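ERR on first pass: missing label on line 2. Operator R.T. fixed the label and resubmitted. Corrected input:
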Amino acid sequence: MPDDLMTRVINVIATTQHIPVESITADSTFEELKIDSLDGINILFALENEFNISIPDEEARGIRTVREMAAGVEKLTASA
Amino acid sequence: MGVISALGPNRIAFWQSLAEGRPGIRAIESIDRQQFRFQNGAEVSGYDPLCHFDEKQIGLTDRFAQYAVIAAREAIQQSGIVFSDPSRTAIVTGSCVGGQGAMDDGFVDMYKKGLPRVNPMMIPRVMANSGASQMSMGFGITGPTYTVSTACSSANHAIGQAYQMVRYGMADSAITGGSEAVFSFGFLKAWEAMRVVSPDTCRPFSKDRRGLILGEGGAMLVLETLEAAKARGAKILGEIAGFGMSSDAHHITQPSPDGAALAMTTALKEGGVAPESVGYVNAHGTGTIANDVSETAAIRKAFGAHANRLLVSSTKSLHGHALGAAGAIEAVATLLALQNGLVPPTANFTEADPLCDLDIVPNIARAVDVEVAISNSFAFGGLNAVLVFRSPNAL
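pass 2 clean. output:
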């Protein structure tokens, strides 16, 4: 996965959650970052705008970590 | 009682579909569904306002207000009631988003088509009390008239308030229920963004449920005291035996079993109804991952061991989730179930979810005489409203 993609995903999460970028790593879980289901919807919305993609509900549902989220974005940007 | 919904234009068609477990969920026709991640909804199919209103009335009303009036006309006609002192009759309606469709149309005119002005009737169409006001004017009712908006609990809150007004002598009778018209492009996009709408159908309590299906329509009840109904020889359709409200004080979208259970126990206590006398629960049962698990836990908390003997079905699997009209549509479903001795099923059921381990009456209606039923409504924002109904056969 390109570093800049991971950086952009982390930046989106930091901005959406109003938390410092430094508090997020690729291995952070949503639980650690205190991201609940409603926060998750906001992050998906921000990622769709950032990467100009459409994230299907079913693909988003099982995601629990930053790394999984970035991998999902990478897959969607590759197929876009 | 009166109802217009995806199951048809009146209570007869509605009950036929409920009894047969035949859902009104179909491909959405009123907007371009290709632009959405979900394709299906529970629309009032073949609706033609000209069959119900003249052109001037149509120009003044959004569809949600029309549904309110249509359902109220049916309810009043069936009741045979005469409002001899119209100042002693109340109208309390519920709606989540009022005439948002009219607002969406106006915004398309301005933002998309670049028009410099909107339809001058936009405000009277949009206001959430438009349905209640049209009912007041249409039937000449001059008593307390207002609209409650508590998202998906709106109609249950409205019916509960009307019940309290009649019970405590603030009004002699009431027309109450709810109506909603959700199918506008902008509003459906908002639901799409919430990621709670099913891409196929509504399967409450099934393990593979994928979310709710949006519905529309209206339903109204005519309320009066039991004594007044008996005195005029009315055909009594059932009794509202209790009403309970609570707030989760928890989360703006995630439900809490504690709040829902509190509303159920409060409703039963208010009506002096023993939990063991309840035979049927018309569940909120949206078919979302979160609601159905939380509601199961809430029912278990409220009813204890008796939960295993309850029939619990979600008729949203048939008529969809009509938001601020849901409680009213489900009140009609519950009253018809009591009256007919037939509990409508939870349709579209596929596979049991161990976290939803109640008797959910899967797919096929169950013939059983129930004396007391409750109908649950739980809203985003954590606002819960529960009505208790007693069978007319038990009065």
